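Lab notebook: predicted structure, single chain.

Context: the supervisor wants predicted structures on file for every construct in the current expression panel, including those that have not yet been purified. This is the next one on the list. No modifications to the sequence; it matches the entry in the shared construct table.
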Amino acid sequence: MRNRADRRGVPRVARLPMFLLAILLVIAGSGCKTLAREVGEAAASEGITRGVDALQNDPSPSTFVATPKAAKKFASTATATPGAAVTVTVAAAPPDVPELAVERTVVVANTGGDGVNLREPKNGEPIWKYPEGTRLTVRGPAEEMDGRFWLPVRGPDGQEGWVAQEYTESVDSLSPTPVDAARQPSTIAADVAMDTNPPAELASAALEATPEPQPALPTEAAETAETVVQPFVVAIDPGHGGPEVGAANATYGIAEKHVNLDIGLRLAALLEANGYQVVMTRTTDSAVNVNGEDLNGSGAITVDDDLQARVDVANAAGADVFISIHNNGGPSSMRGTAVYYCADHPQGARAAHLADLLQQSFLTHLAAIGHDPIDTGASDDANLGKPYGHLFVVGVQTPRIARELAMPGVLGESLFVSNNLEASLLARDDVLQELALAYYDAITSFLAEPPPDEALPEEALPDA
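Prediction complete. Output recorded below exactly as produced.
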């Protein structure tokens, strides 16, 4: 009689390997996809492994190619010599549409001095207005609508929308050409410090996208594309800030200090885009006398010291003109638009002229957005009943004002925050932009005029 092993035809000692093989085949059938994926990832990251090995032997900057997933894995686990820079070039996914290799620049022109409206969408209401000479970045091809061509643009203040193409002129001779983005790998620069087990947050912080290199413009085109630098410095003072709120309107949820700063930042963007140098007394919701010093020597630290700090900023910058941006407050029924200057100031006559220009510009631009402003005029600050007879920031030296402005200065009160009708305007972006343009037009017109000492002399009368 044969034993049990003989009856089955397989010796007992051989059954164990076959049993294990059967189990492996079952596992392989369910896990082949996982295995294939892991093999693929290992192959994709092989270049990184070689790169890390090479880097450990050679701390000089290294460059190699990997998939985005493999690049992340490298950043979270790689060990490198201190100070060694590693550049991982990650192949980008094929795009759905071609990209523009170069963004071109146009300048606002042919508007008869009115400027061009920025719209979003193309047939929508204007959301901004840019004066002639403003440089705009074109973000894509022109599109036709209702017989007009529209350009998608980005303004110097970061706003994006559409402008009518006929009100622009190109300043670039190099036209953008479509390129296949799949052939333009994005680059991730990883600066990995020596650590045998770097924390995840450190590895994540090490991945910083760097911009694609752009084709250089020809020299002639580059010179044409440069903004003409103006020989003027404009000091912009957004009134109030920090603990000083100014006027407020609960119905529309606005505070004067925020409105003033918003207009000031828009004005700065317009000026800088057109070559003017700008200094601002504040760029955030903060006081200007940040160190809490007794700047006017009164023996006490008060709001007057914050006002003195604003004057000092403008003087230190050697500004050619000083603009203090305000909006008014008072009884809810009060409305009006006004500008103030100091006739007693050494440059009082020029300040009065700037005030007249600004007041007319306010009226023009407010009318452009459909508002019927109440013109309360450009006035001498002596009529306001302020301490020692003057507004601090535009006034002359007094026991209150230790140092006066060294340049012509004005203070604008464009609208009343405390009046609901005018507050509703100040809550609108298009109105704030229009007010910034009003300041811009007045400032640039004023600075375009020759100073009194450079004016051409009158023709001498012939001898009798």
